[in-house]
Amino acid sequence: MTVEQSIISLDHVVKDxxxxxxxxxxxxxxxxxxxDVSLDIRRGDIFGIIGYSGAGKSTLVRLINAxxxxxxxxxTVLGTDITALGEAKLRPLRRKIGMIFQQFNLFSxxxxxxxxxxxxxxxxxxxxYQLRRVERLLDFVGLKEHAGKxxxxxxxxxxxxxxxxxxxxTNPDILVADEATSALDPQTTAEVLSLLRRVNEEFxxxxxxxxxxxxxxxxxxxxxxxxxxxxxVESGDVYDVFAAPREPVTRRFIATAISGIPDRSRxxxxxxxxKGRIVTILIRQRAVHRAGTGEIVASSGQDISHLILDSGxxxxxxxxxxxxVAGSAIGAxxxxxxxxxxxxDSFLARLRRHSDVVDFxxxxxxxxxxxxxxxxxxRSDAGRYPESSGDVPTQVEDRGGVQ
Length: 403
Ligand code: ADP
Description:
The chain is an alpha/beta fold.
């Protein structure tokens, strides 16, 4: 990656926080919030940084806008090495980075228009320019009729739209969204995300999305980095990471957003209720490069209905789903296949030539769950994440090392 393409670049960045009352020579007295992170965000990206609470995401953001200084390593933003830049020189650079937050951070005593105008006042814009800019921004975020209202008179989604307008006021190059949709319901989240997509497309603003919600990454990001215990454990194009995740923590996040292999208890239930062969087929519309390894993972699950029609087996779809990530389909479908055993066997052998297939056997002759899931290797182990069990908390503490 060349420096020109990269709008934010972190090079082996470490951030330690010292606990009160400990000396700087005591290594046990520090918390390592960011641990040797190297990252390049390109101009025009919508870059998702996903991780559980405590993973180090907010610290990373504070390093990008220089509210924190790295313990070691280098941070470059818009071509400037900000690692050791003084406050006076940081100020114009910070103006190029807009921020929106989970709790909106609006002034409750200012109207919508005055909230949006605030950064322009700080920047000493002429009053008539301020008014024109605020009007354009109100129009862009669809809040023209609400200009004179106070934040308490607005819904959560409207408040966040004010937040976005305010963040865009001084024409930033970068917009950092820190859990910006975490306090919103799904419908409002979708509206705010589509507004962020327009910000990216119409103004060319690079967006850094900090989130613990994989659906947010799935719906608008083009690149993603997964953070755990201060480190980036996996990163790449969104489709590639979703289709061929390497790390267990990544799989757990993906399982909250798209269908995967059913978990053990669901397979057991399907065996009880259906007497035929229970089989999961992973769906991956196109081949992908597994991030960081150079390995290519083949497409899977294409043209299943034709194969079933030609095979003489009867297929009953029981469970699963397909979703679109970065314009290509991903998911998993679980079927019951009935027919005599040799017909089903030869059908599965044909299916395996171009698909990742997990064969759970029948109720009479089940395949051990772990062995069934492990057998999907080595064609690819993509999608080998069990489904979200329903009790996966949306935000749990990152204790590192436990994944
Ligand atoms: P996230 O945003 O992913 O929830 P944070 O960056 O807030 O994670 O925190 C990462 C780790 O750093 C946590 O263990 C947190 O307790 C610690 N940490 C963050 N900020 C400070 C600080 N100012 N002082 C001490 N520890 C901190």
